[in-house]
């Protein structure tokens, strides 16, 4: 790794460590997501986009239309991950563990998460989940992603990250992130977000707890991407658990 790359990665880690994680934690508890502004530079986003054309970095490519997932393509990285992605994955995880453990505790789910990401990956591997899940997604005009949840086996972490690598209203229009909350015995709630290039959006993988009159209940959440009206949209997804396939 060159010194310039090390310096850039350290700058990202310094930004992550300097964040007010108490505020971010409260936003995630309340909303199921939190937007963290301007963590990656334009240069870093462009370098990540350039990785898309390097086939040796990936274990699997998926044409979304073939599986009725939408219209576009995404590629799962293989291990070892690119250095910047690896560091973000390991540095953000410990800040999210208290949220994950609190959610599972109030919903009476029988799993607790270790403080380090390396320990959590060991849990995944013990259940046969050994394949990398970080991925880059590419959409052209008309591309979209249907509502879904990113679960790859019995062991999963309830929060994940997305970083939009293209600039909205410059590189593309449309392509908003869409979330639906499926509230028991009520109509679904929809939320729409448009992060800027280099922002990190932390959001729930599957559900969040809500407090009702008789204790906590589970609100299921799915996410997707609305159609791209013009241009090309790249994004990086960072999922903390590994996959079986």
UniProtKB/TrEMBL annotation:
Record InterPro entries: DUF2086, Oxoglu/Fe-dep_dioxygenase_dom
Keywords, alphabetical: Iron, Metal-binding, Oxidoreductase
Transmembrane segments: none
Keyword Nucleotide-binding listed: no
Recorded family membership: Belongs to the iron/ascorbate-dependent oxidoreductase family.
Position of the signal peptide: none
Annotated protein name in UniProt: Fe2OG dioxygenase domain-containing protein
Top-level taxon in the UniProt lineage: Bacteria
UniProt domain Fe2OG dioxygenase: residue ranges: 130-243
Gene3D superfamilies tied to this protein: q2cbj1_9rhob like domain
Keyword Amino-acid biosynthesis: no
